[in-house]
Amino acid sequence: MGYVSATSPLASLATQARTAYVAQVTGDSAAAWWSAVILTASSERQAERYREEIQRRRREGKLPAKTRYLVAPDPGGRRIGSGGATLNALRWLAREFGTQAARESWWLNQRVLVLHSGGDSRRLPQYSLLGKLFTPLPVTTAWGDVSTVFDETLALSSAWVERLPAGLVVASGDVILTFDAAQLDWTRPGVCGVAVRRPIEIGSQHGVYVLGGAGRVYAFLQKPSAAAARAAGAMLQADEVALDTGLLRFDPVLSARLTEIALGPETGSFSDAPLIDLYDHLTLILTGQFSPPPGSHPVLLALAQALRGAPFWCDLVEGEFTHVGATPLYRRLLSGQTGFLELYEAQQRLGSVAPAHLRSAGVVIDSVLAGGDIKPGAVVLECELEGPVQAARGAMLHGLTDIPGPIEVPEDIVVHQVPVVLPDGRRGTVIRVYGVHDDPKRRLDEDPGATWLNTPMKETLAGLGLEPDLVWPDVPAGERTLWNARLFPLSPAAEAWECARWMLGLGEDYDAARWRAAERLSLATSAEWTDTQALSDARTRRLQANWRATAVSLARSGADVRPLLAHAPGISALAQAGRAIEACARQLEASALTEAASHHYQASLFLAQAGLGEEAARARAAAFQCVQRAVEAGVRDLTLEVATQGWQHDAVSVSAPPRVDLGGGWSDTPPFCLDWGGTVLNIAVELAGDYPIRTVLRRLREPVIRCISEEHGELREFRSSAELLAPAGPGSPFSIPRVALRMFGLARPGCELADTLRALGGGLEIRTIVDLPMGSGLGASSILAATLLRALAVMLGIPLSDQALSDQVMRLEQLMTTGGGWQDQAGGIYPGAKLVFSGPGLRQRLRIEPLGWTESRQAEFSERFVLYYTGIRRVAKDLLAQVVGAYLARETAVVQVLHSIKTLAMEMAYAMREGEWERLGELIDRHWGLNQILDPHTTNAPINALLEELRPLLAGAKLAGAGGGGFLLLLARSPAAAYELRRKLAAAPAPGQLYPYRIARRGLQVSA
Fold first, then answer.
1. Terminal-to-terminal C-alpha distance of the chain
2. Residues of 770-796 as b/e, b for ≥16 C-beta within 10 angstroms?
3. What is the per-residue pLDDT across 619-649, written as a single tens digit (0 to 9) for each?
4. Which of 23, 138, 166, 759 has the most beta carbons within 10 angstroms of its beta carbon?
5. Burial class, 66, CB count within 10 angstroms (exposed 0-12 / middle 13-18 / buried 19+)
6. How much helix, strand and coil, in percent to the nearest 5, is found in the chain?
7. Cis geometry, peptide bond prior to residue 563 (ω within 30 degrees of 0)
8. If you compute the radius of gyration of the chain from its CA atoms, what whole number of angstroms results?
9. CA–CA separation, 925 vs 922, rounded Å?
10. Cβ count near 405 (within 10 Å)
11. How far apart are CA 833 and CA 825, in angstroms?
């Protein structure tokens, strides 16, 4: 399965489809949509559950109202195959619309979607009744609910239906398809499939099209081997095949013929019809690979007559094919180990951010937990528990409620609680326990792979003392599977949990004797007799439990609002709360800009959850505008005006050292530093005996601004103020010069640039040099801005103190929208190793405290400290917005980290003065861990692998820069370890590079 970025064209197309779907739901769209959506079901009970899901969405206004929604159960619960289910769905369609549905003239104006969602889901037993179609996904809908395959399919189908003039579309209910619908040609007559390119290794597990010219289908293969695919001509380039997505479109002519067959005498009541598979029988009839022999059932003969000779096409599209298959695959989907999540913006992803009271490296969805520890790969679904939860790696907890005390679930184990109502009216609870890797379809006596709790089933039963004849009292030996094993007692929830703990080897409060005496159900019967009303009641309780406090008062108190937003009771309440908080923010703007920023941002979270995307975006923008206004207010009295006497020099050169940040980074960033003050420990360094960050200004005769970026190898001349004032994003190498010229008044609206420059004595060449890799993490961008502002001030004869220079750099970065604090420029303006402090307040007055260590201490440090460029680049802009947004939202973990790193900076300074190198390493490692709380993507697999390899030599390590830049800061355990560390890194392959350095004794330097 391919992976895509949230900014990829495919992700953008998916976002457009979801936006179009919201418009359909709200009734604001005139675009094409489905006349009817029909869901197939394996039984009447499953159909009832599907209808409840649809009715709930309709009551809450979360489905397009103009569509008819039908559910078509297999008649009498008899399995009739996907082809038979398609005919049955068309029969239900005719019941709804009348016999006109069998006429081509009717189909010429209709678009009908059939979602195949029948089946026991035996390999994903959690959804045996509800079906894979309604399995939760680790993302939210536009209105903040936990999304499902059904919701995503309808949303994504917004793109398909626009390509469909009329006819029938059949899709699989266990697949999520995201592709460029512009590649569909559904105007052609006949039948059209849809395929995606995938390696044959994946194709061997699915259907595969054999394609000819213009998309004609020559053959259809089911789960072919590589040899079979190659022999049939199915191979595309690079050993890829055209993988069947399950999507089939029938034109109006064939749609009418199929409906006529569904209503005809051949079909009857399906009581004696054979199992007809849509993707075997129908596709093979279309390709000529199958023809029912004489004497076959009349419905098969009728289908062959209707379809034989019909054109069969396939559109090969670029897209994502996400299959909700067996339990292991579903767990991978939920835990973000597939490409599915990459199609979603971060704010749409669900379950990966844990509530503050819960330690979680797994996924928690639609659950109310008192606390605990969720290990990597673990999944918690639809649980409401008052005791602490310990979910081991890969465990899955589903539906657990009314269980007193702590909950512990071992690795790779599923624990699923099901409320049951028996046919005689008795009610109780079944807690089903099984292994993630168990396949309930495997036969005990025939398949050595038949397991229970991830171990051979016979061994597990013997270990518990359970007799097979009691487990399968009415099942012949050759048909015994985990699916039909009567293992799970029907009892109150607490007693069912005691039995589950006993089965898992976690408790002794239950035994085989109690098990024998209990009434027991299997996976099959517990699914069949699930109490659907009890499930609905449990869902309501979970919603209410997460909305006990008033949303507005919680936000106003400055608390973390994420736990509240995760379980909102409705769109209206969310919208009202968001708008009330937004009104409060506007009132605060005149007196408390940073508090107003927080309320604006909190309001955006409520509004976004309500699906009000534009309002949420405006609120977020207002939050960051308040931060920018707060920064500007702090430097308002520091005017930068053009000197009337003109250029003071023919040329000015300003150079500065980069900075190495050891501690406190992020605490210098507005608005945190404005609220609390910041504390940073950093070191200005020479690299290879040089200051690699420089700005050189040179006066020109011609009245023009010439900008040269040596590191980018680019040159651009500006001849008008309009050119300089036009927006330039952070990716432009000339963003800093353009904003700096604006700040000094050289570029003003309505003023001719040439006139301004002539008055000064000519044009200006601005040459910037950064002899460092892009995204180094050494503060180069801010320090370059400092060199440029200082150079312009000197050139114009404007006094600018070091403190004022630092303030103006922060203002420049706010004007550029990149944000940022003062530590980078302070690190380059001031020399050596130092602590830099600021107090609370809009005006950030810096206090510089040199480290005050001895020459011998500095030499010891330099001997142990290693600077290594990894070759990995990052840009901090989005990260800045992410962390600042998290602080404005008052996310508990983020606020705690920002306060903690201030203390760490001072502890590091003490350790450096005293030569406590082991302690310094511990503090660096702790800081590195805190940085990863702020941004889990600060590190990556290559960095982790390198650090793991070097760990025996290291006292501590972290990446440089708030944005997780490309330089690693490494503190060796000893001088000998430092020698070995440098030797290993010097021999490492490119693009990594060991950088020699020296602690800078001077800060920013001016030559005029």
1. 59
2. bebbebbbbbbbbbbbbbbbbbbbbbb
3. 999 999 999 899 888 877 766 766 567 899 9
4. 138
5. exposed
6. 40, 20, 35
7. no
8. 33
9. 5
10. 11
11. 14
Q: Residue 914: its pLDDT value, please?
A: 96
Specify the DSSP element, H or E, that contains 99: none
* Phi (first) and psi of residue 948, to 5 degrees: -65, -40
| C-alpha 641 chain-centroid distance | 46
Listed in sequence order, the DSSP H helices in 744-854 are 753-760, 780-796, 802-816, 823-829
Place of tokens 């800093």: 736
Hey, what amino acid is at 910?
Y
| Burial of 237 (C-beta count, 10 Å sphere; 0-12/13-18/19+) | exposed
- Per-residue tokens: 738: 């353009």
Beta-bridge partner residues of 683 = 660, 833
Q: Number of C-alpha atoms within 13 angstroms, CB side, residue 456?
A: 7
What domains appear along the chain, each with residue ranges and CATH number? Answer: 9-323 (no CATH), 349-539 (no CATH), 546-634 (no CATH), 651-850 (3.30.230.10), 855-1000 (3.30.70.890)
Structure tokens at 571: 């769109």
* Contacts of residue 633, Cβ cutoff 8 Å, sequence gap at least 6: 593, 842
Tell me the residue type at 477: A
Compute the residue count for the chain.
1008
The Cα–Cα gap between 509 and 349 comes to 40
Question: CA 1001 to CA 304: how far, in whole Å?
Answer: 88
Tell me which residues of the chain have a pLDDT lower than 70.
1-8, 266-271, 345-357, 544-550, 567, 638-639, 641-644, 729-730, 874-877, 962-965
Q: In whole angstroms, how far apart are CA 811 and each of 272, 630, 716? A: 79, 10, 24
Alpha-carbon distance 395 to 390, whole Å?
A: 10
| Residue (of 892, 928, 857, 974) closest to 663 by Cα position | 928
691 token code pair: 């200051």
Tokens, residue 596: 């107003």
Instruction: Quote the tokens at residue 358.
Output: 């819960």
